[in-house]
């Protein structure tokens, strides 16, 4: 399978810059995998496709305000610092991306906030854009974290080309977000409202939760035509006993298991036994799913409409069938569905 097979022309005006007014009122395309039939619905209609004892699996990761703007010592040049992950709590060490990278060298100091509220020193080069920063802060850890996050912005992807707004902090977070550590939202989960979850619960649908801390690898471009040569960034995942039991119970009793989003699908497929059951797991995954691929766990999935050439589109094509998905995307463009993080949803069953 070649990279060029995932190129399509996406009119720029179809990339959603804002979420739907209400979470569960975005549009939803339903694609039937067997027949290729397409239905046009509203997201809250998802309730009609699930029954008592079916299981929906959610990613309960929580996004933190990862994008900061600081100034370089002496020159005062503005530098964007994107926090990726905390490396050492005691030493205040963080793995970050810096932009423009060419201006930042080991030993440079960066100043953040009014009156230089926070100072960081570059202590290592990890990649061409990546650096390790040590934040120079003497107070208690909780105070440091609060200061750091007060300076950060909601890390909207770059293709949402507008300034961050006040309600992004709430809307770029799922309602079941619990465990902090993501620098991007698991977007399929953004469509669920509390009212919709309650209605699904009343119908008897069971909810399982896993955690995958979404990294920037989701937006990293694929640079090789031969997809077998692409390496995914590693992301941290947790599947607990309860979630594994819920999923395996549903599969055993022939009920539907729905992966809400590509992050959930990747997590589930990372920890499968030879019998096709889900195993509890704590660790890292760099699993890259593209067609052809035999899925073992979920038999339905919710996803957004992904951008051309993205690894997210590749996974959806592996699940829904390459021809059916690429056809569905052409229909979505014709019907003016909204694409990207804040866009509309697709249910593949």
TrEMBL record:
UniProt-annotated location(s): Cytoplasm
UniProt keyword annotation of Isomerase present: yes
GO biological process: tRNA queuosine(34) biosynthetic process
Gene3D superfamilies named in the record: QueA-like
Enzyme class: transferase
Cellular component annotations (GO), alphabetically ordered: cytoplasm
Keywords: Cytoplasm, Isomerase, Queuosine biosynthesis, S-adenosyl-L-methionine, Transferase
Main location: cytoplasm
Associated pathway: tRNA modification; tRNA-queuosine biosynthesis
The protein's Enzyme Commission number: 2.4.99.17
Catalytically driven reaction(s): 7-aminomethyl-7-carbaguanosine(34) in tRNA + S-adenosyl-L-methionine = epoxyqueuosine(34) in tRNA + adenine + L-methionine + 2 H(+)
UniProt-listed Pfam families: Queuosine_synth
InterPro entries (UniProt xref): QueA, QueA_dom1, QueA_dom2, QueA_sf
Coiled-coil intervals, chain numbering: none
Physiological role: Transfers and isomerizes the ribose moiety from AdoMet to the 7-aminomethyl group of 7-deazaguanine (preQ1-tRNA) to give epoxyqueuosine (oQ-tRNA).
Family: Belongs to the QueA family.
Subunit note: Monomer.
Name of the protein this chain belongs to: S-adenosylmethionine:tRNA ribosyltransferase-isomerase
């Amino acid at each position: 399978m070649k990279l060029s097979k995932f190129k399509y022309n996406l009119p720029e005006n179809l990339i959603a810059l804002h979420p739907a007014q209400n979470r569960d009122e975005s549009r939803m395309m339903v694609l039937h995998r067997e027949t290729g039939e397409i239905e046009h619905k509203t997201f809250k209609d998802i309730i009609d496709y699930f029954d008592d004892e079916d299981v929906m699996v959610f990613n309960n990761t929580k996004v933190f305000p990862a994008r900061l703007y600081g100034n370089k010592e002496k020159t005062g040049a503005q530098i964007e610092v994107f926090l990726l992950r905390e490396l050492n709590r005691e030493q205040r060490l963080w793995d970050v991306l810096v932009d423009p990278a060419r201006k930042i060298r080991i030993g440079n100091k960066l100043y953040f906030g009014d009156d230089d509220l926070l100072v960081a020193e570059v202590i290592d080069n990890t990649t061409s854009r990546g650096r390790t920063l040590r934040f120079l802060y003497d107070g208690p850890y909780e105070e440091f974290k609060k200061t750091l996050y007060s300076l950060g912005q909601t890390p909207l992807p770059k293709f949402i080309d507008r300034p961050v707004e006040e309600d992004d902090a709430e809307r770029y977070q799922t309602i079941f977000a619990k465990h902090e550590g993501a620098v991007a939202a698991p977007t399929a989960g953004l469509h669920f409202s509390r009212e919709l979850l309650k209605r699904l619960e009343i119908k008897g649908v069971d909810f399982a939760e896993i955690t995958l801390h979404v990294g920037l690898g989701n937006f990293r471009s694929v640079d090789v035509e031969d997809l077998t040569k692409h390496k995914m960034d590693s992301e941290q995942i947790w599947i607990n006993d309860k979630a594994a039991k819920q999923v395996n119970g549903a599969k055993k009793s022939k009920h539907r298991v729905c992966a809400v989003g590509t992050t959930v699908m990747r997590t589930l497929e990372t920890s499968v036994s030879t019998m096709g059951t889900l195993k509890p797991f704590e660790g890292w995954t760099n699993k890259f799913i593209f067609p052809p691929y035999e899925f073992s766990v979920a038999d339905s999935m919710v996803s957004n409409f992904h951008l051309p050439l993205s690894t997210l589109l590749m996974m959806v094509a592996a699940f829904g069938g390459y021809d059916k998905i690429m056809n569905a995307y052409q229909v979505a463009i014709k019907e003016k569905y909204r694409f990207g993080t804040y866009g509309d949803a697709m249910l593949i069953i």
